[in-house]
Structures are given as structure tokens and as C-alpha cells.
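Note to self: keep these together.
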Amino acid sequence: METGWLETVLFLLLASVKFAVAVPFFILENKLTFWEGFFFGVTSGVFGIFTFMFLSTIILHFWQWIKGQLGIKRVKPKKVFSKRARMMVRIKTKYGLVGIALLSPLIISLPVGVFLAMRYFKNKKKVFVYMLGGVIIWSLIYASSASLIIQILKTLDLALATVY
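Structure:
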């Protein structure tokens, strides 16, 4: 690895939030091998899952406590659905936890995906395993794609070096 530990930690923190952007960029920028890229992706994903599982549980409990303290009863609000809210409900109903786990690292983002999974599915171990599966699958895809791109660039560089 060519980067310092501080930059690596900062990218790990960024990747735990914006997985689909930070992981491929970090792998390509530092020309990591397949296994280094895969390890970075899984590590940042696991860090994000643990962090946001813990935070979402605290936020949900705190919200329930506030509603109890203020005496807020559940009143059916006027339904307002944005495109994003409709997409989340569609993913949850059509694909369930598997859909949330597979789409979180790519489209939804890990914090939102973990929050949705914790909100709709109460079994924390199951949520963690599925979310980890999604992170592993996307880490494999990103690491193998980046390794292929790096290999192609090295081959092109060698080919150009022999021509000039």
C-alpha cells in the first residue's frame, strides 16, 4: 500500500458510509491487489454495519423514549410518499432483507440500509449476516473489477513502453 495509515483510516470511515464510491476509488488509487482490495472492502463494510447497527438501535430507542415523554400517541398522518420512500418500501416488500442487503452497498448506502433492515427486521444476527453477505459480494465485484482494470493498465503501459 502506498498511502499512510491516516489516509487509509479516513477512507475506511468514508467507505463505511459511501461504500460504492470510496472502495473502488481507494483500490484503484492505491493499485491494491485483489486480496488487499477485498480485505479493505470487507473491513470498511463490517465497520459500517457494526457502527450503524449500534447507532440505529440507539436512535430508535431514543425516539420511542421522546415520544413517551411528550405523550405523543400514534395518529395516522396524511400519507406523503416521495420517490425515495416508495423505492424503499418496494425493495422491502418485494425483495425483503436480501434486497436491502444487496442494494445497500451500491444504491441505498450502508447507513440507510442498516437502519431500514433494523427497523423492519428485528433479528440482529440475521440482519448482520445478510448485510455482511451484501458487503462481501460487492467487495468481490469491486476488487476483481479493479484488479482487472489495474492489470489492463499495466499491460498497456508495458506495450506503450516497448513502442516508444
